[in-house]
């Protein structure tokens, strides 16, 4: 579920719960609880308490903040690239729909053009379900019923449904051109649009299949956890009873940054702040239906004015 918040005042934003808080709540409470125990030990058994200076945490904290910033920047780059790709998909799908439905009615039948337009919408749904590893229900709904067997053969061969849809659309346009129903002037822009759809497919698959290296993510988790757990040993002698409060805010900041980077690293998932792929697919399908319906109305209005060929 895509989260879009209204602009809040600065004061209200301070007390508005974020979606990452439930994910890090247990970690923050654990670090704070340990700091309470360490603070009590330091108060009652100072002679036997292991005191560390703030210097090690300062030395570690600086590179840690740099690494977290770099990791979050890399994650956001992946998120924003995914959003731009899906924004391009919306625009290119509309363009292909317009290109198909504005082909002269005498050249290609209305039913054939509407079927090709449904394939464009099916591509968007197929791409969404492939990126999310979901059943291709919506895409199969938009494809013609007689293609169910060929879809199954294509999928059994290890290929993807989005590529199947593009292959069928390309073959349909090539057949129209071969039969003389499309001129080169009309066909070339359509071919360029198909190339753009193929590029979007490949780029989305690259983002999904090439996450940030797992070892780097594990290292960040471990360093943040160790830093927050050992922090009371370095500040208890200085801030004393305020140690749990200091640990609470520091652990909230570090665990929060770590969780945000992990959440937006894969923009095609189901987390609250991931891309609204289902909504974008609905926009594409609705727009293409409207384009198809408008073309049908125009052809119906023009048809009575056409000369009777048989007379």
Short description:
The chain is an all-alpha fold. Helix content is 75%, strand content 0%. Helix 2 (21-44) runs parallel beside helix 9, helix 3 packs antiparallel against helix 9 and helix 3 packs parallel to helix 11.
Molecular structure report:
It is a single chain. The protein is mainly α and 311 residues long. It has a domain at 88-211 and 276-296. 75% of the residues lie in helices and 0% in strands. It has eleven helices and no strands. Helix 3 (55-101) runs antiparallel to helix 4 (110-132) and helix 3 (55-101) packs antiparallel against helix 9. The chain is elongated. Mean pLDDT is 86; it is low at 306-311.
- Structural class comes to mainly alpha
- Give helix and strand order, one letter per element, not per position: HHHHHHHHHHH
- Overall shape: elongated
Poorly predicted spans: 306-311
- The percentage helix is over 70%
The total of helices stands at 11
What is the terminal separation in angstroms? 60 Å
